[in-house]
Design brief:
The complex is a heterodimer of chains A (115) and B (114). Chain A has 115 residues and is mainly beta. Chain A has no helices and 12 strands. In chain A, the strands form 3 sheets. In chain A, strands 2, 5, 6, 10, 11 and 12 form a 6-stranded mixed sheet that branches. Chain A has a 4-stranded antiparallel sheet with strand order 3-9-8-7, with no helix packed on it. A two-stranded antiparallel ribbon of chain A has the order 1-4. Chain A is globular and about 40 Å long. The model of chain A has no long low-confidence stretch (mean pLDDT 93). Chain B contains no helices and 11 strands. In chain B, strand 5 and strand 6 form a beta hairpin. The termini of chain B are far apart. The chains are: A mainly beta (115), B mainly beta (114). Chains A and B meet through strand 5, strand 6, strand 10 and strand 11 of A and strand 10 of B.
Chain lengths: 115, 114
């Protein structure tokens, strides 16, 4: 069975600086999707970025980018120019390439942003 | 907002009560999901519906009973719950169940079982 591990329960970053959140996963599949979701306090979980496993190029969305290392089964999220609004729980998730593959989440990393 | 709404946002119930959680999506999606989010644990998938048909029941106790009358609405009926069922219950929807289909989440219902 697939598993997703986020080894950093909490992280802190200074406003305007860069922070990297770690995620590793375990799978025997070659075809899958990876996601980073953000859950601000008392607010809805929203998709930050996603990566198709067959794409070698790392996904980027504005200040958010990933470092996808398929062989190492690593999928880290880099947040550049951190803003106060980036403070949230961040969840890494894996989805199998099967027709009914379900999302498998890590336990999350709580990110604090210091002004 | 993500286009997925949930009511109520907070619910306190006794172990003998019966209550229902409601989820509605305004995205034209065909798949809907119930998740349980407990402190310090990964999100747990509970149920999946695709085109109103249940496609996944992740070994959820029968005191949780889902209902999906149409592709836009999803309910979770609760009865004789236990204190350990206290958690944030999240609803999500996606265009389909394909692995590339992004799931959009609602704000959740914070459930407390006394």
């Amino acid at each position: 069975a697939q598993t997703v591990t986020q080894s950093q329960p909490e992280m802190s970053v200074q406003e305007a600086e860069t922070v990297t959140l770690s995620c590793t996963y375990d799978t025997s599949e070659s075809d899958y999707y990876l996601f980073w979701y953000k859950q601000p306090p008392s607010r809805q979980m929203i998709l930050v970025i996603r990566q198709e496993a067959y794409k070698q190029q790392n996904a980027t969305e504005n200040r958010f980018s990933v470092n996808f290392q398929k062989a190492a089964k690593s999928f880290s999220l880099k947040i550049s120019d951190s803003q106060l609004g980036d403070a949230a729980m961040y969840f890494c998730a894996y989805r199998s390439g099967g027709s009914q593959g379900n999302l498998i989440f890590g336990k999350g990393t709580k990110l604090s942003v210091k002004p | 907002e993500t286009g997925v709404t949930q009511t109520p946002r907070h619910l306190v119930m006794g172990m003998t009560n019966k209550k229902s959680l409601k989820c509605e999506q305004h995205l034209g999606h065909n798949a809907m999901y119930w998740y349980k989010q407990s402190a310090k644990k990964p999100l747990e998938l509970m149920f999946v519906y695709n085109f109103k048909e249940q496609t996944e029941n992740n070994s959820v106790p029968s005191r949780f009973s889902p209902e999906c009358p149409n592709s836009s609405h999803l309910f979770l009926h609760l009865h004789t719950l236990q204190p350990e069922d206290s958690a944030l219950y999240l609803c999500a929807s996606s265009r389909g169940q394909g692995y590339g289909d992004t799931q959009y989440f609602g704000p959740g219902t914070r459930l407390t079982v006394l």
